[in-house]
Fold these 4 entries.
Entry 1:
Amino acid sequence: MNYSNVICIGDSFTNEWDCYRREGLLEKFDELNYEFKSYPQLLGEHYGCKWETFGKPGMTMPFTIMTLIDKIDYILSLDNPLVIFQFGFFQNSTLKVDKNIEFIWKDFGGTYDDDAVLNDKDEFIDGLDSLDKLAITTWYEKYEEFRNYWYIDEFTTIARMVNRLKKVDMFGVFFSSPKFELPKNEHILWLFGGAALNEDIERINVLDGITDSHKSTEGNIKISREIIKNINESKLII
């Protein structure tokens, strides 16, 4: 398959370059003479084409979906792009209480006993009493993954719509396993049989002095090979 472009949309597990740049790890890589490559970069190298990553660390699925929608015109302008959409963690989402209270679930302190609630700008948020925190925490622990299920259908609807306009190989991938069964769809790649990233996917903390648990180059090589294998086996490929 000769793709003209590789477009990848996702959170920090797709845009690890920004994650490592924020944490000052790029300088550490230089010190260790370590060459980091993301799976979007490896896909671009495999297909011999330009690769781009959209999205950023900390993005929840509402924003990843919005990013995909925002890029539709650009995707349609390309000759023959491969689009990979990485679903995030299904228990995460963004909540907006009012113009002054905005935060994402993954930035909570952990339990409703915590006094600290942070928004996505790492600013402390006031205005939530203990009962509010208890209600929100209980909801997210029990139900949020199931509510976020419908972003899968939203993605496949967008993919079908794009393909009515122009034939585009657009696939969703999962790096985490939610509590529900993942649906089978021609626009979904079941990487590693639909399982979460497992112990076989090497993390960057194999390097001395690094505690971050995002993927290493070797881990991304396995991810990119799995994506390529699944694309080759997909019924979207003629």
Entry 2:
Amino acid sequence: MRKQVYNVLFDMVRTGHAAGSRVLTLIAKNIEDEKAEEILDDLLKAIVPALIKKYIPITSSNKFNEKLFNSCI
């Protein structure tokens, strides 16, 4: 169910119904408590890089990279 929620959020960003920065903030807050490897793998290999590369301004990408890095540690 959580994986489906993340995929829906990503689709909302792609269609312009949600801001990429908002979804990344949500992911950063929840990634610390995520235990399922499959979900973490999907988030860190596909969703987060796509959001940062395509839907976040370049000036903000370093801030989000740092925020997500700290959340993962």
Entry 3:
Amino acid sequence: MAETYSLAVTGAGIGQKFAQKVHTLPDSGATPGAMARAQQLHTPLLCLNPDGSQAYYVLDAGRSTPANPVLRRV
């Protein structure tokens, strides 16, 4: 099944200046409960990059909050 990005939840990548939220999280990992589960299990999420390409990221458990997810590229 293909990922969808209709919830438009964005996250910042590690090392980005000013913590710009530019990566769109997939709908399967965009809710607070799904984010918590993905952090616990280190589940890679297929996120949408600003240029339209896709890449796998994991949520950084030490820096992320439900309102401000921080992503680390796998």
Entry 4:
Amino acid sequence: MIIKLLPEQVPLFWDAIKFAAVQADEIDNKDLQPYLNELLHSLLGEKAQCFAGLDDKRTLVGILITRLGIDKITGDKYLLVQAVYTWKMLSDQVWKDAYELFQQFAKKEECKYITFNSRNPAIWNKAEKLGFVEKTRTYSLKID
């Protein structure tokens, strides 16, 4: 089961959200505090949304964080899946259920598309099974 957390529920899940987001977004220690401050502020102010995946025993098994955005060129509203983290392997059916929930949320918010970034090939494969197509690749070179 996947539930959308209300802003007032975020503090109850904050330790799990922090851990999951930092792992999924691969945040450097030097950037950790500003990242977490911005994330908490966005979740409490409903600029970001948090979904919790629960198993049959209502044990937390995953965290998903989304944000609504506007494409600066086209003006299209979209749903960004910012972070996905699970504590155990999830079946393809659970991933499909999560996708359907996000698709419903995106439609309710009048989004034109759903997007995400990942460097994890397992996530790419799951997304392609759900109908996502690769739009672009981003490369980065750190300058010291």
